[in-house]
Design brief:
The protein is mainly α. It is 65% helix and 0% strand. The two termini are 13 Å apart.
Amino acid sequence: MTNFQIFASELPYPELTVYSVSRGDVIALTDDYAGRESETTAIMQYSYQSYILKEKYPDVAKILEQIEIVEMTHHEMLAEAIIESGGDPVIAGRHCFWSGSTVNYAEDLCTILKADLQGELTAIANYKRTIAALSNKSIAALIERIILDEELHVKIFKKLIEEYCCK
């Protein structure tokens, strides 16, 4: 089993500085916070997966728990950015409230790992679109730092797929 020690970039998260209320920034952050492909979904998906894999793949379950903790940090920081921008961090994307139906409930390890890898790649692409839509440079810097964590998660999932699924 690959031994992972680090689940988040060692660089600090930038301090959030919001100078004015921005409805556009709130809208830009909403889907990353609690939309279909969001931090909320990632947290719940990794939680579910760690539960079902704990007995057969305890090392993978522990890695998923550690990544989930990092995603919780992202979730909290996005909520803070939404509040500071004048929004309300309800658990919803732009078009509807978050639903547990967005979680991938696969139970096969390789299917799980491949879905998680795709989820991290999607998160990175979504965050890059968010950065382009933001007016606040401080929030953009925060998102850029979050992307570093997501890129680390991509590397972790690629190594896990190589170890467990390419035999």
